Every structure is written in C-alpha cells, then in structure tokens.
Amino acid sequence: MPRPNRRDLPFLILSGCSGGGKSTLLVELARRGHRTVPEPGQRSVAEEMAGDGAALPWIDIAAFALKAIELTAADLEAAASATCWVVFDRSLVDAVSALNHLGLSEQTTGLLEANRYHSRVFLTPPWRDIFAVTDERRHSFEEAVAEYHRLILTYEDAGYELTMLPRVDVGQRADLIEEYMAQKV
C-alpha cells in the first residue's frame, strides 16, 4: 500500500477528463525540466496488453483500478525523497473514484486520508476536439465526461482545491502550471 501521509512533499496532480490533454501536458512539463510521473492507467494498459490482459478497463475495471493503486504506491515511494515539484498524471484519488463508482469503497477506506498530495489539483476539462478513441482508450467521449464529473466530486470530497485548465495550447497550459509552482516555492 502507499506511503503514510507526506503533506510536506510537493506532489502536484494533473487529473481530469480522459483525452483532455493531461499526458501531452506532462510531456511538455518534462521537456521543460520538471520531474513528472506518467499515468498509472496508461502504463497498466500497456503492460496488460503485452501480457494476459486480465486487468484492462474494458474487461475488469476493478482489477484495473487496483493495479493503478499499486503502481501509484510505487510512484509515491519513488518520489518520496523529492525536494522539488513532482507532477503526477493522475493519482490515487482517480483510482479511488473508480472503485467508489463500482461500489467498492470498502477497499479504499482511509487511503486518501493517509496519502495526501499538494492541495491544488489541475484538471483538464472535457475537450471533444482533442478526444480520440484508441486501442488503449476504448470508452466514448460521453463516458469520459461522466468520469470527469465523478472525479470532481471525489477530489472535492477529499478536500482538494481544483483549478480547471483552459482549453488552450499545451504551452500555455504548461505556463500556467509553472507560474503556480513558482509562486509556491
């Protein structure tokens, strides 16, 4: 399971609508020299598609979410000694939201309270113009929007402050996040 509460660490979350530009933004922030952690869900899908494929979101969403929690736990452990900002593409909150939606909240009891990130979370809103169904992302835009609304509620219930990123190019989005990080150093 993930590490105990580490509120003093600068772990910044990018979350929001699937297909809303999070991963592209993460790549841009990495290109600019920031420490980043790719989305556990995407890594899990790649691993599962290369293997037996049992924990894929379109086959077994609960197994997929539990695997995302395991990967996120490893990510948090790896970042625990960070002294600078670490930007995560999604977080434990995202996996917990999925399990809660499935009625499996007993598997997430205490997880969010014990594993905090920075209080500000940046969300990518639904953006139909850039959303695409792929071999790895098989759900519809409407399903992505429904997940986005569940995420907002889960983040708010967990006490995070949400900032919706505008639908602008990736450079402008990265500028906004860098400005925030510079103010909080």
Question: Overview of this structure, please?
Answer:
- By secondary structure, this protein is of the alpha/beta class.
- The chain has one domain: P-loop containing nucleotide triphosphate hydrolases (Rossmann fold).
- The protein has seven helices and five strands; from the N terminus they run βαβααβααβαβα.
- A five-stranded parallel beta sheet has the order 2-3-1-4-5, sandwiched between helices.
- Helix 1 (22-31) crosses helix 7, helix 2 crosses helix 3 (61-79) and helix 4 (92-101) crosses helix 6.
- 38% of the residues are buried.
- It holds the Pfam family AAA_28.
- Keywords: Plasmid.
- This is AAA family ATPase.
- Residues 13-173 form the NadR/Ttd14 AAA domain.
Coarse morphology: globular
Q: What would you give as the CATH superfamily?
A: P-loop containing nucleotide triphosphate hydrolases
Count of DSSP strands = 5
Overall tally of domains: 1
User: Could you tell me the mean pLDDT?
Assistant: 83
Largest beta sheet: what is the strand line-up?
A: 2-3-1-4-5
Helix-strand topology string: EHEHHEHHEHEH
**Sheet of most strands:** 5 strands, parallel
Radius of gyration (Å): 15 Å
CATH topology (fold) name? Rossmann fold
Uncertain regions: pLDDT < 50 for 5+ in a row? 1-8
Instruction: Identify the CATH class.
Output: Alpha Beta
Number of helices: 7
Tell me the CATH architecture.
3-Layer(aba) Sandwich
Q: Ends: how far apart?
A: 29 Å
Quickly give the structural class: alpha/beta
Beta content comes to: 5-15%
Helical proportion? Answer: 40-55%
